[in-house]
Amino acid sequence: MGDFLGTWYFWIKALHVISVIAWMAGLFYLPRLYVYHAEQVQKGSETEAMFFVMERRLLKAIINPASVATWVFGLCLVFTPGIVDWGMAWPWVKAGCVLGMTWFHHWLGWRRKDFLEGRNVLSGRTYRMMNEVPTLLMIVIVISVMVKF
Questions:
Q1: What is the pLDDT, as a whole number, of residue 109?
Q2: How far apart are CA 128 and CA 134, in angstroms?
Q3: Residues 69, 62: contact at Cβ < 8 Å?
């Protein structure tokens, strides 16, 4: 398995980066949709039905598959011999941030259910603040991977 991963390392790395970009794009955009949904959409309106469709498609067709691909290709990189030195801090920091990103992803899914069931109590301001979570996690992940402290 190590030979396979080593041979395909650069392809796996490229697919991981592509997956991360797609995942992050969705994680940046969905909370922005929630801002507008919470602030400007009347319950039961045609506009709300359109938001339901946009939110569902973004989550189910982009964010979820990109997340799975990110995890699969990322784990392939982790198991490639000689790539990760677990004696250093950076892989642990990155792992913690990726778990945080995954939690945020699921939090967005739970909020979508709140909107669907008419139970959303969060304001547009809350969604704006939560929209910073993936940005902060991404910064820490990129720095930890590039600097390898």
A1: 98
A2: 12
A3: no
Strand runs labelled E in the chain: none
Number of domains comprising the chain: 1
How many helices (H) and strands (E) would you count in the chain?
7, 0
Structure tokens at 77: 């990189």
Give me 14's structure tokens.
């490229």
Q: What b/e sequence results for 93-116 when a residue is b if at least 16 CB atoms lie within 10 Å of its CB, and e otherwise?
A: bbbebbebbeebbeebeebbeebe
pLDDT of residue 3: 84
Residue 6: the pLDDT is 80
Q: Alpha-carbon distance 132 to 135, whole Å?
A: 5
Q: How many CA atoms lie within 13 A of 88 on its CB side?
A: 11
Q: State the residue range of the domain holding 80.
A: 2-147
* Nearest-angstrom CA–CA distance, 104 and 108: 6
- The predicted model scores a pTM of 0.92
Question: What per-residue confidence (pLDDT) applies to 2?
Answer: 62
CB atoms within 10 A of CB 35: 19
The span from the first CA to the last CA of the chain, in angstroms, equals 28
